[in-house]
Known about the structure:
By secondary structure, the protein is mostly helical.
Amino acid sequence: MDDQQTAIEHLTELRKVLLSSVIFFIICFAIMIAGIQQIIPFLTKDQELVMLGPLEVVRFYTGVAGSLSIGLSAPFIGYQIWKFVRPALSDKESRTALRFIPAMFISFIAGISFGFFVVFPFIYGFLINLGKINFDMMITTREYFSFLLMSTIPLGFLFEVPFVLMFLTAIGMVTPSQLKKTRKYAYITLAVISALITPPDFVSQIIVLIPLFVLYEIGLLFSKRVYKKQVKRKEEEAVVTG
């Protein structure tokens, strides 16, 4: 009976998390739709884009509003998830997770900004100029927005790498020595991701790849700092109990 009550309570809490997250997303979506006419010029950067039909306008506007709403909703959704899983976490894990939510959101925004202001303009301009050599380029809004998302969203997640490594170290899942041992595999993974989101030219891949390598090394430094604090705290506790 107690197990059944516990399961019902968990389902009720999960329902609250989902409902509040959906409501918050809808509010953000409504705000984005209301301001879409001001947002579109900023995203398109005066590019000459074409629509293939009236429904294309609806798809484009809702796609832009939806993508931005997901980004705005991320901290709130993260906080709701933390509240839901908090009972299963230790006090240390709970405090650590709560502290890292805003940091990871800020790093996500930094990654998207890097993609939007640096990576996307360079890659987009390179491909357009390459195409103009032999063709008249006509870019649809759908293709433009899809390429924009592909060039920015992955970088948003990749910029969270330092804080992810720091968080995993803080809860005891990894150590700096383990991260050092897996460095070459991490570099290979980052190189593959860089190749997937950039055109097949050396300069574009280097523009993306070097910051990713730097981010991993920053994550390793953060991990070392957290690990040293943990070791020092354990030594102090051992002296007190001894």
